[in-house]
Amino acid sequence: MAELELDEVLAHRLLDAVLADQGSRPRDQQREIGPSGLGGCREFIRATMAGDPMLESNTWKAEAWIGTVGGEALETIFERELGALTQQRITCVLPRTGLVVSGSSDLIWVEDNMLGDLKSKDGFETVKKEGPSLDNLIQVAIYVLGLVQRGVLTEGASARLVYWDRSGATKEFLVIVVEWEAILRFIEICEQRLEEVVEAQDALEAGDLSYRHRLRDKKPAYCMSPKVMCPFRQACWEGSEWWPTDKLEDPELIAAAHRVFEAREDAKKADELVKSGKAELEGVNGVTPDGLAVGWVGNRLNVTRVR
Questions:
Q1: Which residues pair with 161 in a beta bridge?
Q2: Choosing a second label site near 192 at 20 to 30 A (CA), which of 62, 225, 263, 284?
Q3: Which of 87, 138, 147, 137 is nearest to 113 (CA)?
Q4: Strands 107-109 and 100-104: what pairing?
Q5: What CATH class does 15-237 carry?
Q6: How far is CA 242 from CA 40, 238, 255, in A?
Q7: 304/87 Cα distance (integer angstroms)
């Protein structure tokens, strides 16, 4: 096979353009917490509301980008084919804390007294096993309550979390029902978390810095993963064993660190390719024209070269 000719200059220009667009989107510029953030890490909520310094991201969050672009396309389809209201600005006043929070919903079916929220995933295994995440549940609860407060929906309304597979391996939707009683319960959970955030901020302003660590709801590996790269990761973890203090300046050590990082990223990508390939080859047995044998032993897929 001939060696590929790569245009690194254009590749960098393309990435710079995507990063510039990513940084200009309202979600990346906002300094307020919207409905999608109130079920996430409490320290992230506190730091955002307090206006703590943020690290800029130089990583293309491709998964989130695919979710946004694909979600917008699906909204257009469901608006045209199913009569859904899309991109409605919703403001909700939380009843106990009085916090006013705003965001834009994906889908509303007024006649069905129902809200729908689109979520992209790489497969449905985790959702089926563990259920929806707290941030997803609190987000739709806030939207539904806000729509009831506005008179668009009525008490007793429900929500649907609509998951779609951005990897393309699963060619269907997973739709989870969230009933009115659950919506009220998640509003209560949201307000309790906010009260904990306010208590921590008061303590921090009084000089008790330990409160910052009490609110961390995620592990360092999550905060620093390429998919997330939390803008508050340094403030959260600097000084811990997860944040080394020595500077590496030896070119060979720097090159070795990059090799390990890139190899692990390649391994993750390989796992994702195997996962999507298994889904496409489910139940398939045979030999390709160039000699790859495809077969199943129980739930295990074997792909080997036979000639």
A1: 117, 176
A2: 225
A3: 147
A4: unpaired
A5: alpha beta
A6: 21, 7, 21
A7: 48
